[in-house]
Protein backbone atom coordinates (compact mmCIF):
# COMPACT_ATOMS: atom_id res chain seq x y z
CA UNK A 1 0.00 0.00 0.00
CA UNK A 2 2.77 2.43 0.93
CA UNK A 3 4.75 1.65 -2.20
CA UNK A 4 1.65 2.23 -4.36
CA UNK A 5 1.14 5.59 -2.68
CA UNK A 6 4.78 6.52 -3.28
CA UNK A 7 4.58 5.53 -6.95
CA UNK A 8 1.38 7.54 -7.42
CA UNK A 9 2.93 10.53 -5.67
CA UNK A 10 6.04 10.33 -7.85
CA UNK A 11 3.89 10.09 -10.98
CA UNK A 12 1.78 13.07 -9.90
CA UNK A 13 4.95 15.06 -9.18
CA UNK A 14 6.37 14.20 -12.59
CA UNK A 15 3.15 15.29 -14.28
CA UNK A 16 3.13 18.55 -12.33
CA UNK A 17 6.73 19.25 -13.33
CA UNK A 18 6.02 18.45 -16.97
CA UNK A 19 3.01 20.75 -16.91
CA UNK A 20 5.03 23.57 -15.40
CA UNK A 21 7.64 23.18 -18.15
CA UNK A 22 5.08 23.18 -20.92
CA UNK A 23 3.14 26.19 -19.72
CA UNK A 24 6.12 28.41 -18.93
CA UNK A 25 7.02 30.37 -22.03
CA UNK A 26 9.73 32.99 -21.50
CA UNK A 27 9.14 36.50 -22.79
CA UNK A 28 10.25 37.07 -26.38
CA UNK A 29 13.83 38.32 -26.55
CA UNK A 30 15.05 40.00 -29.73
CA UNK A 31 18.14 41.80 -28.47
CA UNK A 32 20.20 42.76 -25.45
CA UNK A 33 17.85 45.61 -24.52
CA UNK A 34 14.94 43.17 -24.27
CA UNK A 35 17.03 41.05 -21.90
CA UNK A 36 17.94 44.05 -19.75
CA UNK A 37 14.27 45.11 -19.51
CA UNK A 38 12.74 41.68 -18.88
CA UNK A 39 15.27 39.81 -16.75
CA UNK A 40 14.27 39.02 -13.21
CA UNK A 41 16.66 40.18 -10.52
CA UNK A 42 17.18 37.21 -8.21
CA UNK A 43 18.71 37.63 -4.78
CA UNK A 44 20.52 34.37 -4.11
CA UNK A 45 20.99 35.34 -0.45
CA UNK A 46 17.22 35.32 0.07
CA UNK A 47 16.99 31.93 -1.57
CA UNK A 48 19.76 30.62 0.67
CA UNK A 49 17.89 31.94 3.71
CA UNK A 50 14.81 29.98 2.64
CA UNK A 51 16.90 26.79 2.52
CA UNK A 52 19.03 27.38 5.60
CA UNK A 53 19.03 24.22 7.70
CA UNK A 54 19.95 26.09 10.86
CA UNK A 55 16.99 28.40 10.48
CA UNK A 56 14.74 25.42 9.82
CA UNK A 57 15.99 23.76 13.01
CA UNK A 58 15.30 26.95 14.94
CA UNK A 59 11.79 27.20 13.51
CA UNK A 60 11.12 23.53 14.26
CA UNK A 61 12.03 24.10 17.91
CA UNK A 62 10.19 27.43 18.20
CA UNK A 63 6.89 26.55 16.56
CA UNK A 64 4.32 23.87 17.17
CA UNK A 65 4.44 20.92 14.78
CA UNK A 66 1.44 22.16 12.77
CA UNK A 67 2.72 25.74 12.64
CA UNK A 68 6.12 24.54 11.52
CA UNK A 69 4.65 22.37 8.74
CA UNK A 70 2.51 25.28 7.52
CA UNK A 71 5.40 27.73 7.65
CA UNK A 72 7.73 25.31 5.90
CA UNK A 73 5.23 24.85 3.07
CA UNK A 74 4.94 28.62 2.66
CA UNK A 75 8.73 28.87 2.41
CA UNK A 76 8.76 26.10 -0.18
CA UNK A 77 6.07 27.86 -2.26
CA UNK A 78 8.14 31.05 -2.17
CA UNK A 79 11.26 29.14 -3.21
CA UNK A 80 9.34 27.52 -6.09
CA UNK A 81 8.22 30.97 -7.28
CA UNK A 82 11.83 32.13 -7.23
CA UNK A 83 12.83 29.06 -9.23
CA UNK A 84 10.17 29.92 -11.81
CA UNK A 85 11.72 33.38 -12.26
CA UNK A 86 15.20 31.89 -12.53
CA UNK A 87 13.89 29.43 -15.11
CA UNK A 88 12.45 32.32 -17.15
CA UNK A 89 15.84 34.02 -17.02
CA UNK A 90 17.52 30.85 -18.29
CA UNK A 91 15.00 30.58 -21.14
CA UNK A 92 15.59 34.18 -22.16
CA UNK A 93 19.35 33.63 -22.07
CA UNK A 94 19.01 30.57 -24.26
CA UNK A 95 17.15 32.69 -26.80
CA UNK A 96 19.76 35.43 -26.55
CA UNK A 97 22.50 32.85 -27.14
CA UNK A 98 20.66 31.59 -30.22
CA UNK A 99 20.47 35.15 -31.55
CA UNK A 100 24.19 35.66 -30.92
CA UNK A 101 25.01 32.48 -32.86
CA UNK A 102 23.30 33.88 -35.96
CA UNK A 103 25.67 36.87 -36.16
CA UNK A 104 28.43 34.88 -37.85
CA UNK A 105 31.31 35.91 -35.58
CA UNK A 106 33.16 32.66 -34.75
CA UNK A 107 34.28 33.80 -31.30
CA UNK A 108 30.84 35.13 -30.43
CA UNK A 109 29.29 31.89 -31.73
CA UNK A 110 31.58 29.87 -29.45
CA UNK A 111 30.63 31.97 -26.41
CA UNK A 112 26.96 31.82 -27.37
CA UNK A 113 27.13 28.01 -27.68
CA UNK A 114 28.60 27.88 -24.20
CA UNK A 115 25.82 30.14 -22.92
CA UNK A 116 23.08 27.97 -24.47
CA UNK A 117 24.66 24.75 -23.18
CA UNK A 118 25.04 26.19 -19.69
CA UNK A 119 21.44 27.42 -19.69
CA UNK A 120 20.20 24.00 -20.78
CA UNK A 121 22.19 22.25 -18.04
CA UNK A 122 20.92 24.77 -15.55
CA UNK A 123 17.29 24.19 -16.56
CA UNK A 124 17.79 20.46 -16.06
CA UNK A 125 19.17 21.17 -12.61
CA UNK A 126 16.12 23.34 -11.92
CA UNK A 127 13.90 20.36 -12.69
CA UNK A 128 15.69 18.38 -10.00
CA UNK A 129 15.36 21.27 -7.56
CA UNK A 130 11.64 21.58 -8.29
CA UNK A 131 11.18 17.86 -7.76
CA UNK A 132 13.02 18.10 -4.44
CA UNK A 133 10.83 21.01 -3.36
CA UNK A 134 7.67 19.18 -4.38
CA UNK A 135 8.74 16.20 -2.29
CA UNK A 136 9.51 18.49 0.64
CA UNK A 137 6.12 20.12 0.27
CA UNK A 138 4.27 16.79 0.06
CA UNK A 139 6.26 15.23 2.90
CA UNK A 140 7.39 18.07 5.17
CA UNK A 141 9.12 15.81 7.67
CA UNK A 142 11.39 14.27 5.02
CA UNK A 143 14.83 15.69 4.64
CA UNK A 144 15.41 15.73 0.90
CA UNK A 145 18.65 17.33 -0.19
CA UNK A 146 18.52 19.84 -3.01
CA UNK A 147 20.93 19.82 -5.92
CA UNK A 148 23.48 22.60 -5.70
CA UNK A 149 22.22 24.94 -8.36
CA UNK A 150 23.55 28.23 -6.98
CA UNK A 151 26.98 27.51 -8.47
CA UNK A 152 25.35 26.60 -11.78
CA UNK A 153 23.38 29.86 -11.74
CA UNK A 154 26.61 31.76 -11.16
CA UNK A 155 28.22 29.81 -14.03
CA UNK A 156 25.27 30.81 -16.24
CA UNK A 157 25.74 34.47 -15.31
CA UNK A 158 29.48 34.14 -16.02
CA UNK A 159 28.62 32.80 -19.50
CA UNK A 160 26.45 35.86 -20.07
CA UNK A 161 29.37 38.06 -19.06
CA UNK A 162 31.64 36.34 -21.60
CA UNK A 163 29.10 36.92 -24.37
CA UNK A 164 28.80 40.54 -23.24
CA UNK A 165 32.57 40.95 -23.40
CA UNK A 166 32.61 39.61 -26.94
CA UNK A 167 30.01 42.08 -28.00
CA UNK A 168 26.37 42.65 -27.18
CA UNK A 169 26.58 45.40 -29.78
CA UNK A 170 26.15 42.80 -32.49
CA UNK A 171 22.75 41.87 -31.03
CA UNK A 172 21.22 45.35 -30.89
Low-pLDDT segments: none
Shape: elongated
**What integer value in Å does the Rg equal?**
19 Å
Query: Could you estimate the helical fraction of the residues in percent?
Result: over 70%
Structural class: mainly alpha
Mean pLDDT: 77
**% residues in beta strands:** under 5%
End-to-end distance = 59 Å
Please provide the ordered H/E string of secondary-structure elements.
Answer: HHHHHHH
* Number of separate strands: 0
Number of spatially distinct domains: 1
**Tally of helical runs:** 7
Q: What's the arrangement of secondary structure elements?
A:
Elements: H1 2-23, H2 32-38, H3 44-51, H4 53-62, H5 65-101, H6 106-138, H7 150-167
Helix pairs in contact: 5-6, 5-7, 6-7
Structural features, described:
The protein is 78% helix and 0% strand. The chain has 172 residues and is an all-alpha fold. It has one domain (2-171). The protein is elongated and about 60 Å long. The termini are far apart. The model has no long low-confidence stretch (mean pLDDT 77).
